[in-house]
User: Fold these one by one.
Assistant:
Number 1:
Amino acid sequence: MTTHAVHRGTRTSRTGVLLAIAVIIGLLSVPFWAGRADMRLIVEMAYFLALAQMWNLMAGYAGLVSIGQQAYVGIGGYALFALAIHADVPPLLALPLAGLIAALIAVPTAFVVFRLRGAYFAIGTWVAAEVFRLVLAQVTALGGGTGQSLPATIVRSIADSVDGRDRLIYFTGIALAVCATALVFLLLRSRHGLALTALRDAEGAAESLGVDRFRTQLWVYIVAALGTGMIGALIFLQKLRISPDAAFSVSDWTANVIFIVVIGGIGRIEGPIVGTLVFFALRALLADFGTWYMIVLGGVAVIVMLKAPQGLWGLVADRFGLDFFPVRRLVRSWERGPPARNDA
Amino acid sequence: MTAILRLEGVSKSFGALKVIDDLSFSLRRGEALGVIGPNGAGKSTMFNLITGGLTPGAGRILFDERDITRLTPPARCRLGIGRSYQIPQPFGGMTVFENVLVGATFGSGKPERQCHESCIAVLETTGLLGKANRLAGTLTLLERKRLELARALSIGPKVLLLDEIAGGLTEGECQALVETIRTIHGNGVSLIWIEHVVHALLAAVSRLVVINFGALLAEGEPQAVMNDPRVQSVYMGIDEDAA
């Protein structure tokens, strides 16, 4: 009698867990020995990683290639400012609320942009983001077209000292990045992950096997908006100033993020991590070269897309069989029943 | 016997081209029905109309006496209509086991863990158990065809729609496939099988429908249909095969 069991996990995944714990502990110790500039840089990396995970979830797994995610960065940022200034909500509490507001706004938006497919969907999301930018520029209570700063009293309410504030924002940033990565990982391991991957690989076949495309993609879009909205709120909590152009910047919050995901490896959880490291390394390297920075970045993206469409992590992972975030289900067979079960 | 699936005056046009023209026929409960017809006769389009990938311009489709003409593909799947694709459409980034698991869990609405056993059973029936952990994108043509069958079975179908599943296989492979299909039919699944490999088809079906230019040309007992002069004239060359 042959018995079968389904299990998850690979050899590298156990190493992966240890590695992840080590990195997180290392990151949590940073505020106790590093300077302000280093902490700010790591927070920036953390929110780009979180944004990249959200974009990768949509484009790499759900087949929703959006170039309008800046809409939710902006909405999250503005929601935080509105809640803190006009409703006296403590900024850190306003963070999750900002995510919820972004998710709520994503629902009607989805019903509009989901009418479009493929490239039209991409352009539609961008147009939607522009509409939000133009609308918010009209709201004088939120600073209109010129934007506004977070009042000093609210800034002080986050924490008494500058150091304390930096630390809180730092830990929040790390938490968001870890949660975004964990969310994508857990989602992919779940039943919904099966549906997403199936839709990505063969949409028609997935639907004829009972997968509801609209509902699956709608949920991913809303979850991504929730995450992106919270990240947006954190970004502008760190910057302490918001304006429509900064909040809804397609190059900052979408082009850079697409670069990160594509370079690192689209449709892989490790992709955004590798991509974020490469992006920030290139930025540091090219900081003194002005416009050349963007040109080199674009050049690198083109070369990677042509030579390694699976991204840099894809190259490494496929060569060495690495998989730190195993989402696959593997069948193991025994000739006799395993000790744990007493099949005949 | 009652019909489990019935097409009533179904038509479908792409622009000026009428692909399905007032097509009516039914599949009886527990029956194995073969469908033949020249390339471009509208056979695959007919399947897409039944599974909901396409919506007919006119007519009705009934499943178990219920009108399903406006249902979405996933809803029809959950009623028990399983299909295989002529050109295999594996989920290339997933393992063979996961490919089958998709249909098992979403086709039934059951939680994933409750479906593991039925998936193993389906893989065993289709001879894919040894390949369960392979990425579907790396399978050979025969394995892909088997995976198409396995996925269609994974939903626990009442009606199975097979689209040229024997095409491109060797004689031995083809015979093994016919055996598998006969076993499935023997377990009480009604099926419609579109096939160009007529001798394989005739080994498994008890009634034959011929479609030409999207309309019914002939239907009935397989040998009688194959000997019909109208069928022979549109389907030249296959008469010797069937004799």
Number 2:
Amino acid sequence: MIRRYAALIRNAWLVDLQYRASIVLWLLWGVAEPAIALGIWWTIAGDGSVAGYARADFARYFFAVMLINQLTIAWDSWYLDRWIREGDLNYRLARPLHPAHEAVAENIAYKARTASVILVVWLLVAVAWPAVRLPLDPGRWAITAVAVLLAAVMRFFISFTTGLLAFWTTRATAIMELHARVSLFLAGRIAPLALLPPAVAGVAGVLWFRSMLAFPVDLLTGTVQGTDAILRGLGGQIVWLGVWILAYRVAWSRGIRKYGAVGG
Amino acid sequence: MPSIVDAERLSKTFQVKVRDPGLRGALRALLRPRYRDVHAVRDVTFRIDPGEIVAFLGPNGAGKTTTLKMLAGLLYPTSGRVEVAGFVPWTSGPPFKRRIALVLGNRQQLVWDLPPEETFLLNRAIYDIPARDYGERLAELVTLLELGDVLQKPVRQLSLGERMKCELVASLLHRPPLLFLDEPTLGLDVTAQDAIRRFLTEYRERHGATVLLTSHYMQDVTALASRVLMINRGRLLYDGALEALVARIAPTKRIELVLGGSDGNRVTAEALAAFGAVKSFHFPNAVLEVRREDAPATSARLLAALPVADLSIEDPPIEEVIRLAFARGVEEDE
């Protein structure tokens, strides 16, 4: 299986190299959203603070968002929607490799490429700007790595499962788009959850949105403190991951029976 | 010898959303969707022995491709039973998929932006092909398909014919005993079509592979297939040798004549009409149509009665036979 993944990742990178301009554009997009959010909160915070967040806290928060969002984001619903509607799933189903493996490999390739660039940018910025430096605590970094992995796997299953809706509807990407809009607020992409109205933040915590991004970000920046809070966060991630894996299994086994194998 | 494909009463019904035209129709479909059953394949039963080349014949939408996709495990049948290479296709995993190749004329697995060799290397990893086997097989396929220098060009720069050849390479590197080819010559020029046909014949002879193909081109069928399965509106109309189909459908033979004699005692159309239906007559060439069983006797009479320089007995053109067969729906007599 390792050889297969190596071959898939290699091909993904080779294709990337054909489209250098689009890599830069995606990277800019990944940087622009948190940078703009940071700009807004920077202005609002002024010399004081908002809900306990001063300028330096916002800076750390959004740099962490920038990195962790790129490490956990998944585009699979768009691919799957196309595979299913246009019949590109056909030859993938005829190969002795589940199509999900190709999607996972694409994710690894994408994440390694964008996140490494963002990491370098962050390190360079941190040299000049102490505000975005993180506490150097190996234990916390290790726990964050676990939380990031859980979030990445969960977001993969969310995206893949939503893409599978293309077996039933032509609007699968619209559903994913809606999910992305909601997660802009509920996952903490536009503001730390602590700044949202308590009811809204509560919903984000009960559903899977906090587990997607805000929780690993808060872990990395040190906002989540205490074993209890950390375990509760990780527990929530594991539960929601389980739910989404189950949803994936149901959607795949039912969808594949419904598949019309378009084309040809 | 056990069959490699064994299909029994195979059926596939699709539910298709029905929508009236216009905005009102769209709204109504949204609020109260209506569905119609489309019977793509109905009660199809057949067996295929290892090493056979079998062609599915039928007009667009006849159910050929749907049948092929069920055999390859892409589609779940609505009812019926299939065993392919000892597996139930849609529930069998990698062991089954290693034994088949699926080539779709209008869908490609080659990575569009990369040279074809990158897709071959990917398949080498996916199918766990040992490095030495990979090298040998690639060399063989490249020689048979006369691919030469296209392996390093990006796929998007290849011609349609070169792309199809590379599709075949990608699909055959794991040397499957069973090939499903859906319109493998679709859109190709005559030279490329011919190259693909020659390749498939050669490949089958070398490796004893079983080939199931669908095609719109009769030449594919006549050049490749020893047996045809004729499908129309989801039903299997005929299963057997092409020649036997011709004999059943076209109860006539054509006698093609080149007449001799000089201008003075030219044979006339009226004189020919006494022997059979005159299909065409441009002295000295004439074509007569006679009942199949009468062909030898009529030929003897022609040779005795008229100054004949050359005579041949032919089947009617295959396209004509197929057209007739679909028009009539081939009465199965057993």
Number 3:
Amino acid sequence: MSIIQQLVSGIGVPNFYVLIPEIIILITAFVVFFIELFGKNKRSLITWTTVAGLSLSLIFTFVIVLGILNLITNPQILAHAKESGFYSFIISNFFEQYMTLFGLYSVDIFSLVFKVFILVGTLFVIFHLRSYAESKKTYYGEYYYLILFAVLGMMIMVSSPNLITFYIGLELMSIAVYILIGMYRKNYLSKEAAFKYLIIGGTGTAIISYAIALIYGFSGKFAFGDILKTLFYSDQTNVGLIGGLILLILGLALKASAVPMHFWTPDAYEGAPTPITAFMAAPVKIATYAVILKIMVEAFPFVSEQWSLAWAILAALSMVVGNAVALVQKNVKRMLAYSSIAHTGYIVAALAAPTTVGFAALIFYSLIYVFMAVGALMFLSLFERFEGWTNHIDDFKGLARKNPWMAFVMGAFMFSMLGIPPTVGFMGKLFVFLALIGSDIWWLAVLLVIMSIVSAGYYLKVVSNMYFYDPAKPISFNISLPEKLSMGILAIIVIILGIYPTWFFKVSTNLSSILISTIGG
Amino acid sequence: MEYLWVIPFSPLIAFIIIGLFGYKLLREPLAGIVAVIGVGIAAIASIIGFIDVATTGNYYDLKLYTWLPLGDYKVSVSLFWDPLSALMTCVVTCVSTFIFIFATGYMKGDPSYPRFFAYLSLFVFMMLMLTLGDNLIQLFFGWEGVGLASYLLIGFWHYKKSAADASFESFIVNRVGDWLFLLGVLLAFVTFGTLDYLDLFNKLPEAGYWTVTAIALLLFGGAVGKSAQIPLHIWLPNAMEGPTPVSALIHAATMVAAGVYMVARVMPVFAASDLALDVVLFVGTISAFLAATMGLVQNDIKRIIAYSTLSQLGYMFAAEGLGLFGEGMFHLASHAVFKALLFLCAGSVLIALHHLLDVQKMGQIGKYMPITTGAFLVGALSLAGIPPFSGFFSKDPIIEGAYEINWVVWVFLWLGAGLTAFYIFRLFFLAFFDGDRLDPHIRKHVHESPPQMTIPLIVLATGAVLLGFFKEFFANFLRPSLDPMSMTFLNEKTKILVEEGLSRSHHVHIHENAWEFLVHSLTSPLGLLTLFTALGGIFVAYIMYQVKIINPAWLTQMFKPIYLTLWNKWFFDLIYYAIFVYGYYKVSRFLWKAGDKIIIDGIVHGSGKTAIFSGNVMKLSQTGRISAYVLQMAIGMLVFLSLFIFLT
Amino acid sequence: MVPYEYYVVLSALLMVLGLVGVIIRKNIIAMLISTELMLNAVNIAFVAFDFKLQEVAGQVFVFFILTIAAAEAAVGLGLIMAIYRMKKDVSVEKLTELKF
């Protein structure tokens, strides 16, 4: 009998091992916490402990994806896998849904894939965090374990099979993020941004809790599957439930920063330390998109008419407001904040088409969005370290002359966000567009195209400033090779996925069909 | 046939190598050599593939991987190798190879030498993706890719304002065509549910006439933009701001011919609609004639050749509109050779004269540059359609065919041929002979170009002399791709449909054998008329610019309105400038009705302003005050809640 | 006995009151308290619904909300302290440097 089995049987929770990635994150967070409290000369130790914890968690997530733990712990499955061949075993494992903590936590391929991307995005942020914090004289060990707690929150969130788990995960994530935004030493803007997000996010929490209360009150259940059954057996025009659903949508829209609940986004993004902005823009965002999709599909598939319309309106508003206001921004960090509002619009637009194709488009776009958002914001974080760089659009002038590699990298992110082939952003928009057309939602599809064209106004401005102007300020940039490499990896991912998106698209299509197949299960 | 994959990917690998190591490791000579090797390998592979297709007559449809699944249909990255694509690929790779070699000499000493070759290799890769695709999406990908490469290369010397402007202009004008093209592709997909050529052709009989017409016309809209036909032609002459090898490769031999290739590629779609063929014919004819007239009065050596490119592309489209697809493609191949030759000669002259472009300031170069002069003469005779040069064998059949199908078209093409001969020899006499108008400072340095520039000239000149005699071979070679009865991949219904569509050219009989055609031309009145028109054009140029019996200045005084019209390029630039640059302030002189003003102002000017204005307005909601934020959120929530609760 | 709807209406009223409080209060501490008020309104709603459903799950949720409200208040007060140290003021009017 292996140690893991003993542990599992000791705790008495079936399928406990699927929690290993989360437990690793939790333990790492506490380890980092204690190193920070008691350690000496601890800075690189903290960074590497965090990186190690995240990587280990990533590895175990993969292990669960492949069902290897299942193989080790269960001899019957091992025998069966040997019979059917490992490849087909791994494929069949993709359809497995592991429930643990007595039905309060579910791990399936959908949540695992999102966990992988959350962890990867966080790794890129952690990698650049220290040099930024030290150059800005705002280093704290707290960044690391708060980020880890936020990651834990996200992982709980995407694995939630009911509204309670979802709520805990969401709040764990949100509260950690409130603190992270305000961690900029002696910077008033950071405090203001954090307080604004705290108040508005707190309002959002209240809205979500009230929505949960209403849903609970009129269905008597918290679990997604049970809510679905109640909706199925009762008449669908229950005002309380619809009200609860709409409030829940608005609360989630607030966390995903969709218009008209977006007001905290530009301020919080601008005030936060830039790596934290990247963290908020990429891993936090995609966890939110994932959970939006999960709740909508698993709990409310029978009222999809209502929520698809609601998300369509939110998406349309987000695209219009996000792009139009981004067009007149001069600060690139704030522009990217508005652009992230616009991207929320593009992504949730996929929910207007409640079909397999639409969900696949949402998953695909969310996954690729990690690379673009982390890339563009980490670029700013790298350059902010240099004296004289203010993120103003004019600071980009002549960058191609001074640092051609970084200019190319930023160009790739901008083109991808704009959606020009051969970058992957084009694919994301194309899939959303096709999904919308497939469901005959032409107005939103046309709006998406028009707004993408409008967005060219500000993305291309960055590119043209980099390539067609002479340097305006005498700033010297020395960016180390590992930093260049890590940014290059992101840019190359963005381009290669644009040329070869097949694999990603298969993953998202399969995820979406698996998601649908689990309804009511 | 898997080795064919080498063709597109060897230039791509060259691009990646130069892009990564160009400035650090390779630098001046090596970057060029890598590019030449990359494209050379592609040329050799495509010739091997060409021979295979020529001997067996097979076609191959190789799929690399599925790029993106659209429902049931899967877009794949693929390689479609049939006579048509083999011919186009060979033209692209072979002409590119010589131009690349030429460019290693031409770009000598340029600080951005590696960048130039990286862009050129990228261009060749994109062009090959365009020619080799088996579906419209890949074609479109290549289409956009060559547009991008062209944009980058026109603006290669971006510190020159004119170059930056020209590249921007070409980008904008091409986008107009590309949007039409994309709409055509979307419509085709909606109609047929597939974009693979072969499936699409075989589903043609199922679609309605007007749908097919719309698809064909939208696709042709893309071709008009890419091949610079009237009314989207204005970017091409200005694109001459790029380095001369770029003008030769992209804006003469290959990219601009992509439109012609595309129409031939989806020939069954066009053949299924009379109207579409008529539009192709009309646009081609008008372009062939108008561009020739515009070329008469230009003084910039490269622009004269650019207008001749416009005009010759017009001939190709006219041939396709007449249903003579084989002749059109043959003219494409021969044009690629002699036009590349003319441009490279111009490049050689420019190097000798330190980038002096005005032909009025040249003269007597022939003395100093014998090889260039000889090569230019071959190219000019070929362009003018004088036997036995290749232009004669490829252009005259089009004019002759036009006579038997539609005499109006014939008149324009015939006049165009005379004008062509005139303006190219005007350039020839002014630049290479005539009096000595060269600046003495420049004249001191005039010299023949180095071997890596003259050898490509000699090779291309030989090609321009010999290619015409392979007329019969090319006609037979292209038959499995362009003759509906020999197209093995079509089903019976489609064959009948396409056959009917091409019936306008059925009664035309053109001698396929080059000798027979030559003899026929020299004996029939029609052939002689065409020939003497061309010779007449040369003769007029001779007496005006060499012996100067007629004074050109006097002529311009005599026919001032005509001269001004031509000098201003039929006012196209002016009109577009007025419409697109100055918005309605200038347009109001042309368009009196207030409604038009509002519409044009609204579309051209207004959209950008509206976006910025609405951005500035919406920005105001972000007041910075939490109270205001929460209030707006609360209002939004109220609206949403009431909307949905009353809705249900 | 008071029907449960009354409690739900009360909770809704408290919720709106909290929202209005966030909108109209000038003092950022009062703002924070208003958000707490909203969360407590939710607690009443949960208890009322449990009363209707004859269950306890909602009351379990109340404990989570209480915990989260406490965490939020702690973070909020910390931020207010930091803001007060820098600006010597807790008025919302001062909190408007990030805008447009």
